[in-house]
Design brief:
mainly alpha; 301 residues; globular; single chain; 12 helices
């Protein structure tokens, strides 16, 4: 027998509540729908591959066609830097700096918008536990970022193949193992930046301030530490080895392999690739744990 409150009463027993926790896959689907229907998502995720393609491939190729140098490289070197064998470098070189800033902004919007819209209370009142909601948001973010990393590789590959065909140059693609490592490394970097943005959005319960702080850190603070403070003071030289942007740039440098030009700002082999991957994984784990702690231990409002 059922009561008006939606509980089931077994014969001779007390009412037992029906399950209210929403399945994780339903939350992931709902978060994906929200992400894909937000214009900001398309703008942020569209800017990253577009800027990546323009500055890593199109600008050097146009300079080559004009017979001009670019960042000190002669025209022949510019052509070589745009060919298929440089696919990994040209697809990932923007992630440590401007790509990271865009993805951190996306993470802050994903988490902080629930507070600014006042929808988090309503959402949790429908059944899902807080950690289940967080897991759904993270999984949705990973799906979107994985698709964007893949699109970045595909666009760069198409441009590199067209340039090689037009210049009658050799078409030498990276091996399958290198491509798999590069895709995984790119997803690790992208997810780390997104998770850091979610932490800021949750900690500050807003979007504007987390985005501003994130941009200042990515575009200014780390740059000052690496290029100004580290050469002067040993403590900053040691500290830069644990910065997220530095490790993201070092991982891209390691994935690009020997002979890579590494002319993109933020990409430099300051630490080895293995250490960079572990540090980024640690940032991802800690930021996720802190976001979950904040979400479960304090009031929603």
């Amino acid at each position: 027998m059922s009561t008006a409150t939606g509980t089931r009463t077994p014969q001779g027993g007390s009412p037992s509540p029906e399950p209210t926790a929403a399945p994780l896959r339903g939350i992931v689907a709902a978060e994906l729908l929200k992400l894909l229907r937000r214009p900001a998502t398309w703008v942020l995720l569209g800017l990253w591959p577009a800027l990546q393609l323009v500055f890593s491939t199109l600008v050097p190729y146009i300079s080559y066609k004009r017979g001009a140098s670019y960042e000190g490289s002669p025209p022949e070197a510019l052509l070589a830097s745009t060919l298929p064998d440089r696919l990994v470098e040209n697809s990932l070189s923007g992630l440590p700096l401007f790509g990271g800033a865009l993805l951190l902004t996306l993470g802050a919007l994903l988490a902080g918008s629930e507070y600014t819209w006042g929808t988090l209370t309503t959402l949790l009142g429908q059944g899902p536990r807080r950690l289940t909601l967080l897991a759904g948001q993270l999984l949705a973010l990973v799906v979107v970022l994985a698709a964007t990393v893949l699109v970045s590789f595909l666009l760069t590959a198409l441009a590199a193949r067209a340039i090689a065909g037009g210049a009658s140059a050799a078409v030498d693609w990276p091996g399958p193992a290198q491509l798999v490592r590069a895709l995984g490394g790119g997803l690790l970097i992208a997810t780390t930046w997104g998770a850091l943005g979610m932490l800021l959005g949750t900690a500050l319960r807003s979007t504007a301030l987390p985005i501003a702080l994130g941009l200042v850190w990515v575009l200014a603070v780390e740059n000052l530490i690496v290029n100004v403070a580290a050469p002067l003071l040993g403590v900053f030289d040691a500290a830069q080895a644990v910065l997220p942007g530095v490790n993201a740039g070092s991982l891209v440098a390691a994935l690009a392999g020997e002979g890579a030009a590494l002319r993109t700002p933020g990409v430099a082999a300051i630490v080895d690739g293995g250490q960079a991957a572990w540090v980024l994984a640690a940032f991802l784990a800690v930021s996720t744990a802190l976001t979950g702690l904040l979400l479960t231990r304090r009031d929603i409002a």
